Amino acid sequence: MEVFYGKGVSDGCCIGAAAILHSNRAAVKNEPAASPEDEWHRYLTAREQLIARLDALCRQSAQSVGEENADIFAIHAMMAQDEDFNREIERAIREHRQNAAYAVSQAARGLADTFSHMDSAYMRERATDVRDVAEGLIRLLQGEHAATDTLPDTPYVLCADDLTPGQTATLDRSLVLGFATARGSLTSHTAILARSMGLPALVGLGTDAIAAIRDGDPVAIDGQLGTLILCPDAETVARLQQQQQAQSARAARLQHLRHTPTRTADGTSVKLYANAGTPKELEAVLACGGEGIGLLRSEFLYLDRTAPPDEEEQLAAYRHLLENMGGKPVIIRTLDIGADKQVSYLPRLEHEENPALGCRAVRYSLTHPNLFLTQARALLRAGEYGDLSVMFPLITAEQELRDLLRLWQQAEEQLRDRGYHLSKRIPIGIMIETPAAALISDTLAPMVDFFSIGTNDLTQYTLAMDRQNSALLPFLQPHHPAVLSLIRMTIANAKRAGIWVGVCGELAADPVLTEQLLRMGVDELSVSPPLLLSMREHISHIRLSTSHSLKETKKEISHATKDVCHS
Ligand code: PEP
Ligand code: MG
Asked: How far is the CA of 369 from the centre of ligand 1 (A)?
């Protein structure tokens, strides 16, 4: 038995066979080709397949993201047919008997180098395109599948160096018992997804731990202690089984709270909503007795596919969600891609040194207005089928919000021109997840219907700590006074403008903060579905109306006023 220590990011424990998710990029070996002639033909076939794929992508995306943005696929197809590039590959195969994948990788490296040293920024960016084209060809030549295709069809404990949010979202939930990754952190999207699936998860185990595990090895995860146990002994298995039973008993005990409203011990109502990664999580939301959906991360509709969902597909997904929520409020956040949620088929602006500080969320929407307009039209049409609100992620400036509201209006006009009658006004909110937005929340509040505080990003950007980086775990103070101060200021400004305010980041489910947040004046908390009932129980023990609470409330108000005066 061997024990590895990481950070538990989702409670619970599991025992099962390990399945290793191997990195997506297979090494290209320099093995000579048996027959250069056959190898050349193999290359030509792969090239044809890639060009056909790129042409299809170009056509599909011209409709959904506009011709200008779809051009990137045409450029890739052109590169795959470039004479010099192909001559280089042919020479390497025929004269140097290189295998086709290796010949492609070498030719692409030379060409990318040439591009990356050019004077024009536009031409320098083409280096990334060459690498993308080469990757596509190599994948076809090596018959590679998506990494998740190789996972077993019997239950397993997933062990990986890291997981992308797209990979996590597409896993077969009936088979995954738990997650263990070498990297990651508490608020990385993979950890958030694991929590929303109610599966035990560990991050930050380090690469040595994952390297020590082989496919099929018996492993156990203890999410509470943050340990991964390789080949657990009988005593450990018995202890974890006992823990599992205790957890199931607690979950069963909380079931009676499913249909009760959320109230403090002294009768203050709290809106307790659930976060959902995908419309597929609807079942989990309904099962946990969520009073609404406080955050639907709509970008998950866009991940792990080859073209963006068009207006009709999005409408169908949102409509399904709204109808099944039976009139309960649903807040859908517009596309938040970029940073750790990269979408390979969408054009990248250029290589980003710091993607988390780059063109993500509304910045991407504003630079690709057609993509945003398609989503806005789908949302506006979906609004007819339930209680829908929409919010924009990662706002930093008043002008940005004005531009988004103008685009929203443009989407409404486009639909009216197409003959749609929109009978409802959809409330529009923004996420407060940058210090900039919190500091100007007095200006932003009168422009919207509500605020939702995204504490995951607010913490990342306030503390200048990458939420993906497991090396920062020892430095991370989730209750840092600077973050709490920005939250307090945001709430005070929302109240002053007469709008409601919620918290949808992971701190919303942190029981240590619940009372403080409610005293600050938070109206809504949105948490992972598996945590919802224990939060409801926890809130039911909180008393806000004692004399102590009055004192505390006064303190909160004076803090807030001080913050606002200093802002
Ligand atoms: C947040 O940043 O707190 C948030 C809820 O958004 P996400 O975790 O999807 O970035
Ligand atoms: Mg965020």
From this structure: 22
